[in-house]
Write a structure and sequence with these properties.
Blueprint (H helix, E strand, L loop, with lengths): L5 E2 L1 H20 L1 H39 L18 H13 L2 H15 L12 H15 L1 H20 L11 H4 L5 H37 L8 H48 L2 H17 L1 H5 L10 H4 L1 H21 L6 H32 L4 H7 L4 H7 L5 H30 L1 E2 L10 H54 L8
Antiparallel strand pairs: 1-2
Amino acid sequence: MKKDKKLRWEVLFPAWIIVISVLILNLVNYEMFLSVINQVIGWILKNFAWMFNLISLAALFLVIAAYFSPIHKIKIGGSDAKPIIGYKNYVWIVLCTIMGAGLMFWACAEPILHISNPPANVTAGALSGEAILWAMETILLEWTFTPMAIYAMPAVLFALVFYNMKRKFSIGSMLYPVFGDRLSAKHDSIIDCICLFCLCLGISSSLGSGVLLIVEGISRMTGGKIEASPVSWAVCSVLIMLCLIISSVRGLHKGLNYLSRFNSWCYLVIGIFVFLTGPTAYILNLGVESIGAYAADFFKISLWTSAAWGDGWSLWWPQFYWCIWLTWMPISAVFLGKISKGYTIRQVLNAIFVIPAVFSVIWMVLFSASAIYFELNGAGIMQAMNASTTAAAAYAVLEHLPLNVIMVPVFLITAVASYVTSADSNTNAMASLCTRGLTEEDTEAPVFLKIFWGLTISVLCIVMLTAFNIDGMKMLADLGGFFAAFLMILFIIAFIRILKNPSKYKIE
């Protein structure tokens, strides 16, 4: 570590200790851990579903306001600032950082789960037209414009605070428009520590989906000789972590840049292949119909909490996603904000909000519509998931398309690249928060810190996945999102103040 860079022990040590304590409690007294975590999560979802909905909607409104307000012309870092990376590469990195393996995991599995077990308000029942349309508009809500806004608004806020206001490299600095100079270094450290803990939970949750997806793909390619099990999950996680270490050592401009570019091209190839060889007419027809339903019911589904019907369905789906996005939000804001230097706010919002949201609409329509079509025509997508894991849905769809011998490995390689890209970008930001002395000219954290957090997350992911499977992933996200939600409220206030009077904060 360079002499001008030092460890922020007050941030690193407490966050890590809390994570390790969670692991130890799970290993020492599983029953007590399960009881406590279920009670806590039940209380959170029962009492704060309304808050998650309102926060998500507010973020979307603020991003739209910033996109069309005069502030959109302001350049991150000032009028003379030069970009850290080219815009095309910037978009690639952002796209892969935000999407990760989750998009590949849920695009086929979620619609099948929804149409098979719809909420009580879908009175026509399972596999009905009403259930299909409800599933599609719910997926579009959870994966497109609203989650991208949850990432974009804090990212712009961090970029403005760090580069334009010249505040410290800290999540706590993002609260400067709210509290002014009343926040001390001690407060910054507490905030950064909480955010590190939240992301450890969230990233373990999302990357757990990646492990399931990759192991399922390997099992399919080997004819079932390698089965999904705690051992295969652990081996997969270790191998992926080695790829992460290699990418981290090469740094932002070589490792993550090249990896994200490769990953994005794989997405495009797979998407075009599914469109051309899949049920194209059904994809187009259901896609147009679903987008119409999503637009017509946007406010209804954005604020839906299942309270009227009492079945709690929304708590386990839309609210779960809001928790995931909020859990990742603070650390992602740091990473996305620090690579946004040299671009105007509108350019940043195009890269973080518009392009990823449009891409997600296309991807979800392609894969979700294909999965529904095959399920309705007896392909047994749900049966494949019941026989294996939730990750089986994507491969079951691919196996009903031509050239599956080629496309299954391509899909698997893309899943690995997504896993590594997402983990690399976020461990990069986590390491940065644990480093004192980062400047506008040098925002790169020491490699050993990236490796340290990568290993910690990997262990947490495997333990929770082994103990709880996919439900364990959801538990982690709910916990992390609850803490991050209160921070997001303060970020919203800070962003509103900047929008109202940018000159007050020397943002010109």
